[in-house]
């Protein structure tokens, strides 16, 4: 990992990641990044495999059917062109090889045979071990990256960014008002930064902003957009070309998207910006470091979301805020080889307050989409959660502790008063009760009087 970080043009906290990697870990990281680069380089080969199956089946149909599908055949030629064009863009993305310069030993070759582990994942579903169904889900991370480019860095993704990023930015600007703070002194961390658009937007407003990302698919693409694109809308992508279903028109599948809609090289942000590679829980362990943590579609990426919440609380300075927006998808919940807990929003509120957060704002039902084809007949959206939490200051925590201690030591005076009143009422009632009863001996009368006084 250290080799990668040193070669990234945009600033990176290299020293934050390096200490956690042994030689064995670095070698494992090296092999992983080779696979990521190979996944990008083998993009078209994998995409053609799917297209070729369709064309082979089309050729097996009767002459009459093929005649009826003549327009469809022409459309498949357009699909092939789009795949080829996407591969050309990927070649540009990889022109600055992030891991090793071209020609070094271990540098991936586009001609290598590649069985993409990162493109396929097994998910075991079923009610019990005897009745399990193994479903192979194609996770085409190279293809997904193209969709995220469209979401984060094209005009076509503006609506999704408005839904997801604007509430976070507005909340931060309201709390850290530009007229009241020197924004370059307000340090913001964006875990799960993806391709860096939210990080860039916050830095453009003057904040000192750091993005953190674990996926090298995202990091490599982010490096390209942030540092290597030299003018706006230079590149053309076809992010929906792999969607063969739910298309009303042939043109919907082969729709073009231009990026970047804003060129960071020509429009550098006012505030400091940097990207850090690595696992959020491993990289960020220093207490009282950031004024704000902004998370978008991130907190459900943990096996145990409590780990994320505790870490965010720890790294915030006293008085700092955590702004979150997103669903509770819980990415590990259905993976047979992963442990996962899936607390509800109701549970999360209890957890956040128990850890120490003050919840200043909370909203539910924010309609948000993620990398959706706007022309598809199938539209998915989340009713996302939004909250703004604050880490109390040391003084506020001390005050709260004193209040709790005081409350626990104070006598329940109301209860004592009520008990006294009840005792007085009992004493007043004793003579009448004794008169209403007939006792054979004075001893019985004395005993009854004693019981009534209790």
TrEMBL record:
The keyword Methyltransferase applies. Coiled coil: none annotated. It is an enzyme of class 2 (transferase). Keywords: Methyltransferase, S-adenosyl-L-methionine, Transferase. Residues 398-454 are annotated as: Disordered. InterPro entries: CARME, SAM-dependent_MTases_sf. GO terms for biological process: carnosine metabolic process; methylation. Its EC number is 2.1.1.22. Residues 406-424 have a biased composition (Polar residues). The keyword Methyltransferase applies. Belongs to the carnosine N-methyltransferase family. This is carnosine N-methyltransferase. It comes from Drosophila lebanonensis (Fruit fly). The gene is LOC115627139.
């Amino acid at each position: 990992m250290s080799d990668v970080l040193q070669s990234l043009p945009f600033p990176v906290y290299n020293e934050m990641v390096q200490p956690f990697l042994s030689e064995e870990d670095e070698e494992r990281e090296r092999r992983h990044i080779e696979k990521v680069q190979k996944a990008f380089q083998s993009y078209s080969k994998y995409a053609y495999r799917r297209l070729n199956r369709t064309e082979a089946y089309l050729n097996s149909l009767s002459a009459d059917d093929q005649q009826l599908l003549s327009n469809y055949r022409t459309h498949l030629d357009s699909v092939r062109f789009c795949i080829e064009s996407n591969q050309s863009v990927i070649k540009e993305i990889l022109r600055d090889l992030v891991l090793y310069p071209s020609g070094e030993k271990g540098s991936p070759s586009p001609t290598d045979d590649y069985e993409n582990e990162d493109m396929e994942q097994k998910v075991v579903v079923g009610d019990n071990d005897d009745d399990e169904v193994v479903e192979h889900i194609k996770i085409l991370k190279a293809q997904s990256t193209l969709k995220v480019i469209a979401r984060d860095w094209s005009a076509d993704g503006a609506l999704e960014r408005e839904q997801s990023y604007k509430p976070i930015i507005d909340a931060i600007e309201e709390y850290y008002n530009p007229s009241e703070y020197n924004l370059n002194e307000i340090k913001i961390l964006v875990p799960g930064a993806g391709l860096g658009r939210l990080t860039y937007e916050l830095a453009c407003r003057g904040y000192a902003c750091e993005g953190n990302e674990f996926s090298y698919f995202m990091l490599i693409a982010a490096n390209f957009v942030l540092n290597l694109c030299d003018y706006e809308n230079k590149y053309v992508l076809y992010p929906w070309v792999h969607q063969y279903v739910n298309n009303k028109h042939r043109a919907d599948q082969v729709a073009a998207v231009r990026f970047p809609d804003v060129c960071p090289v020509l429009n550098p942000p006012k505030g400091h910006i940097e990207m850090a590679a690595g696992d959020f829980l491993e990289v960020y362990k220093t207490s009282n470091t950031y004024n704000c943590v902004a998370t978008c579609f991130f907190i459900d990426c943990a096996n145990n979301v409590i780990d994320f919440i505790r870490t965010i609380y720890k790294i915030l300075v006293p008085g700092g805020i955590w702004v979150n927006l997103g669903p509770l998808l819980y990415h590990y919940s259905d993976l047979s080889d992963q442990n996962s807990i899936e607390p509800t929003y109701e549970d999360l509120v209890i957890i956040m307050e128990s850890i120490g957060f003050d919840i200043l704002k909370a909203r539910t039902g924010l309609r948000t989409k993620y990398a959706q084809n706007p022309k598809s007949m199938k539209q998915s959206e989340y009713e996302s959660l939004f909250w703004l939490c604050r880490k109390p200051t040391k003084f506020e925590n001390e005050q709260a502790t004193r209040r709790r201690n005081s409350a626990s030591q104070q006598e329940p005076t109301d209860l004592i008063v009520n008990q006294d009143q009840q005792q007085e009422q009992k004493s007043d009632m004793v003579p009448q009760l004794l008169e209403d009863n007939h006792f054979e001996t004075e001893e019985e009368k004395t005993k009854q009087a004693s019981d009534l006084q209790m």
